[in-house]
Amino acid sequence: MAEEEVAQTLFMFADPDPPVKRSRWRRLTESVRTKLRCEQDDPELRRKALVSKQGGYRVHSTGLSEHKRRFLADLYISLIDLPWRYAVAILFNAFLFSFLLFAVFWWLMGHNNGDFDNFGNPNHTACLMGVQGFAGSILFSIETQTTIGYGFAYPNPDCAGTLPLVYLQVVIGFIIETLMLGFIFVKVARPKYRAQTLLFSRHAVVCLENGQPCLQVRVGDLRKSHLLDASVTGMVVRKHSTPEGAYYPLYQSEVEFEANGMGDKIILMWPVILTHRITPESPLYDMRPSDLSAEKLEIILFLTGTVEATGEVCQARTSYVPREILWGHRFERIEEYDISHGRWHVDFSSFDDVIYCQNLRHSARELAQFKTSQPEGATGSNDPDEGKGEREEVKGAKGGKVKVERTLTDNEYYKRAMRLFRDKK
To answer: What is the pLDDT of residues 319-375, one digit of tens each?
Structure first.
């Protein structure tokens, strides 16, 4: 036992094993594998959707080499659309190129005049006072273009070409500063960043409202300055073929959403639920929950409005794939009236919460057939409330059975209609 303890003590205080030296190629291979593993774990990549949940387009275009001139014709917008790493690189390189270019001109002027060979000679009239070489020419170029003027180096106006070169550099520098700073400002202040404070629910739900199946999505605004004149547009992207043999893998169908009784106009003072009523004109009319596992479709929403602070138009986008659509659920209420403060309280922490409410396993077309198949005792009229009653036998005061009329609830009526439909099949 004592020998084992001594061996463990020696092992604990022994020198660690030297690190295994890996080749550069092996380290590169492992880093690539790690990156690919992280990309595979990314839930956004597993969605395989046309539009990401944050609203970015996931469509890659090829064969654009023949159309490069069109991008150069719209150079300013092309610069704004560049990623930030390229925008910052262009900003620094543009100023650096102008500084170096005019530094070469100033150096040539001083070199031709012999300023560097006669530096400090009181009998020599220099064109660049206080400049000793190319490094000093670079510093002088930066001071001239940025109008810093430290006071030690300055040009001699008696030399030919001094005034035109100063004028040219100041004007060109002013143009570069205006374009670059304006380009960066527009890129920072783009209204697309306003969409980051607009929230769409993580899932879409399908439920019955007023006896009609509806697709619902919740949307909210985090800011107190809300969008003006906001509206919503939706579409379903799925494959489509015609009897003539034309095939469209990405066929767009319009999906109309409404916010309560406001139509497609949205007032985002509080989170609202956007509703699409699945009518016979809807592209989702024949879709059942069991079809979503094999159906390849995507529901894309576009929320467009005017930013109150800047007056620019902003658009927020999101999409829902079949596995993100919950049937028989509805959104949980997050608005409560705060009596202590005398105002409404909205809990954004429960923004994505849903509750189970109905057992939906059929399409809107089948549910419409359930309604036409009225239960026993129905008169066949068009009154939606008619036929919802049933006669129930209860015991009377003297022990006899008396038939009374009882009104069925919507859930009981729905279950009875489904049972009747299955019996007919």
So the answer is: 999 889 999 999 999 999 989 888 899 999 999 999 998 888 888 888 888 777 755
Phi and psi of 89, rounded to 5°? -65, -40
Pairing outcome for strands 265-266 and 212-221: unpaired
The pLDDT tens digits for 7-17 are 444 444 444 44
Of the candidates 376, 381, 383, 358, the one whose C-alpha atom is nearest the C-alpha of residue 417 is: 376
Query: What is the number of helices (H) and of strands (E) in the chain?
Result: 10, 19
Give this prediction's pTM. Answer: 0.67
> How far does Cα 209 stand from its chain's mean position?
30
CA–CA separation, 289 vs 206, rounded Å? Answer: 10
As a dihedral over the C-alpha atoms of residue 154, residue 156, residue 160, residue 161, rounded to 10 degrees, the angle is 10
DSSP string, 394-423: EE-TTS-EEEEEEEPPHHHHHHHHHHHHHH
CA 219 to CA 207: how far, in whole Å?
17
